[in-house]
Design brief:
By secondary structure, the protein is of the alpha+beta class. The longest helix has 22 residues. The chain has a six-stranded antiparallel sheet with strand order 1-7-8-4-3-5. It has a two-stranded antiparallel ribbon with strand order 2-6. The chain has seven helices and eight strands. Strand 7 and strand 8 form a beta hairpin.
């Protein structure tokens, strides 16, 4: 049997969407089970202003993901290699704990990794208006002054200064294209 054509794949996808249960109050479909967990991701880019007190509005979709994870605050730490902040909720903390479990409790490697992730972290509270105060120490690491760029990365997100993020984004897209070419991803056999 020949592989499905792109048109067939699109038709199958649209059919699968039609088969999802409908939300009675809205015009969109409701995913259930594992599909719902897959939608529980930090995604998109948001550029939000920081006020004089260092408060910034956390994107509503990010707050929703944190709430689904049961996180009442943002776990945030300086990125080890970039002028950015890494942030997330309980999934991110769980992944870091998983890394640490591979080391003996008294090993220097474990202590160094724990220091980088937990020792340098802040638990940032979100107020009832959806704002969070980014500590000056973290803002200084990322060079953030008046605007913070929130970038969703699935199970975590990053917070950047806009110019630094734009530079990183351009370089990352070029590297991603090279990875795709190297792996042969995105290419279809000619029919």
């Amino acid at each position: 049997m020949p592989p499905p054509s792109p048109t067939d794949e699109l038709r199958n996808f649209r059919g699968a969407l039609r088969d999802l249960p409908r939300c009675p109050r809205h015009s969109f479909s409701v995913a259930t089970g594992s599909a719902l967990r897959e939608m529980n991701e930090f995604a998109s880019r948001f550029d939000n202003k920081i006020d004089a007190k260092g408060r910034v509005s956390v994107p509503a979709s990010f707050r929703a993901v944190l709430a689904q994870e049961g996180a009442e605050e943002i776990f945030c730490y300086p990125h080890l290699d970039r002028p950015a902040l890494e942030a997330g909720g309980s999934r991110l903390v769980g992944k870091i704990k998983g890394i640490l479990e591979d080391f003996p409790i008294d090993s220097p490697e474990r202590d160094e990794i724990a220091t980088a992730y937990f020792g340098e972290s802040e638990k940032v509270k979100i107020d009832p208006d959806g704002r969070a105060v980014l500590p000056k120490r973290l803002r200084d690491h990322a060079g953030i002054t008046d605007v913070a760029v929130f970038v969703g990365l699935g199970d975590k997100f990053q917070i950047w200064e806009p110019t630094a993020y734009d530079k990183f984004r351009t370089e990352a897209r070029e590297r991603a294209r090279a990875y795709r070419r190297e792996l042969g991803a995105g290419s279809r056999p000619q029919t």
